[in-house]
């Protein structure tokens, strides 16, 4: 499907006082663990190694950007952009930039690709800061959130500043194709939140509607930033489309996996009660599949778990009837992401892009 068409559209789940995101793929902070598919673990340090220097410079730049002009926000900048968090969105920008630079025989990535990585992380972080205020989350990445430490006013100002600064940097990239791609992401964020809020406890939610919401909240930014990185390597249109598809389907695979883990991991691993999305009426892939197989689940959801034991029974039904099909869906999305790398020559960066898919999927096996 063309990347600029309306499509299956993902971000942090609503509700809950402990926030998670794509940067927290492993809640226990393990970086290597077994994969039943390939008999090996995926080490995130190894995956990100080809762009480690790029990422350290990005971290320093981001702290300077928010703190230099705004002394009020300096402490918030240290909290937002200090050490911690894997920052996988800019990692992906740098990996795609390096992989496509290899394809085009470039000596190095460009300054505009470096700025794009900063823009991507600023937009993502701004959305998280605002989400934490809306959802009243106390912690993120194991640290207290900005609004918990400094109040909602500073948190909102920090998020607003990041959105504004990222927009200014985006305009100065002076590339209309990239401006359109990244601007659409911000609209998608809002669409995703609104569609999720409007579909709570809706047992008629279709899988396509779930995937569209997931694209808007998570996959849109990943897809657009991967394609934009390829644009600045001046690759062919087919390679740009492939990079969009890689980011889109990696993002969707992550969201499906994250939704599976909401049912399979313990409260200690999740940092929130098991089945919290279901309890709040946010129906995800495992629940949608379970609804098809077990009509009993509909009544439990539509009455919003009014009786004691209803939620636990619903979780049991989803675990029994929804997880296997959701796992297959995540695997299909991951396979599409891998197939999208076919035009890239072998390189360290390409191998890391392949490894990122395995890193996401192995959590459910």
Notes on the protein architecture:
By secondary structure, this protein is an all-alpha fold. It is 65% helix and 2% strand. Strands 1-2-3 form a three-stranded mixed beta sheet. The chain starts with 17 loop residues before the first strand and ends with a helix.
Strand arrangement in the largest pleated sheet: 1-2-3
Helix-strand pattern, N to C? EHHHHHEEHHHHHHHHHHHH
User: Could you describe the largest sheet, including whether it forms a barrel?
Assistant: 3 strands, mixed
The quaternary state of the protein chains shown equals single chain
CATH topology: the name is Farnesyl Diphosphate Synthase
User: Hey, roughly how much beta strand do the residues contain?
Assistant: under 5%
Could you tell me the mean pLDDT?
85
- What's the helical proportion of residues? 55-70%
Radius of gyration: 20 Å
Under the CATH scheme, the architecture is Orthogonal Bundle
Q: Count the domains.
A: 1
Please supply descriptive tags for the structure shown above.
mainly alpha; disordered N terminus; Farnesyl Diphosphate Synthase; 2% strand
């Amino acid at each position: 499907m063309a990347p600029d068409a309306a499509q299956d559209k993902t971000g942090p789940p609503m509700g809950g006082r402990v926030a998670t995101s794509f940067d927290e793929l492993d809640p226990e902070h393990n970086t290597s663990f077994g994969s039943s598919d390939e008999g090996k673990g995926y080490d995130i340090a190894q995956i990100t190694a080809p762009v480690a220097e790029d990422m350290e410079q990005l971290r320093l730049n981001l702290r300077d950007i928010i703190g230099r002009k705004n002394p009020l926000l300096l402490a918030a900048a240290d909290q937002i952009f200090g050490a911690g968090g894997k920052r996988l969105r800019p990692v992906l920008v740098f990996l795609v930039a390096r992989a496509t630079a290899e394809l085009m025989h470039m000596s190095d990535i460009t300054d505009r690709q470096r700025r794009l990585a900063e823009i991507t992380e600023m937009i993502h972080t701004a959305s998280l800061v605002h989400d934490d205020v809306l959802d009243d989350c106390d912690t993120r990445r194991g640290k207290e959130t900005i609004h918990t430490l400094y109040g909602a006013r500073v948190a909102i100002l920090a998020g607003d500043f990041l959105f504004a600064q990222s927009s200014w940097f985006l305009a100065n990239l002076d590339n209309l194709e990239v401006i359109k791609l990244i601007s659409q992401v911000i609209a998608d964020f809002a669409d995703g939140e609104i569609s999720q809020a409007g579909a709570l406890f809706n047992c008629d939610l279709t899988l396509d509607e779930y995937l569209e919401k997931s694209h808007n909240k998570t996959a849109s930014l990943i897809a657009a930033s991967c394609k934009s990185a390829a644009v600045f390597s001046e690759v062919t249109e087919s390679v740009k489309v492939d990079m969009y598809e890689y980011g889109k389907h990696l993002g969707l695979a992550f969201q499906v996996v994250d939704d599976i883990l909401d049912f399979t991991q313990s409260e200690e691993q999740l940092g929130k009660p098991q089945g919290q999305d279901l309890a709040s009426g946010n129906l995800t892939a495992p629940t949608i599949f379970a609804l098809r197989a077990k009509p009993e689940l509909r009544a439990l959801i539509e009455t919003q778990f009014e009786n004691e034991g209803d939620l636990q029974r619903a979780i049991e039904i989803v675990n029994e009837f929804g997880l296997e099909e959701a796992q297959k869906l995540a695997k299909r999305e991951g396979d599409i992401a891998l197939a999208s790398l076919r035009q890239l020559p072998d390189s360290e960066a390409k191998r890391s892009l392949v490894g990122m898919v395995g890193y996401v999927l192995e959590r459910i096996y």
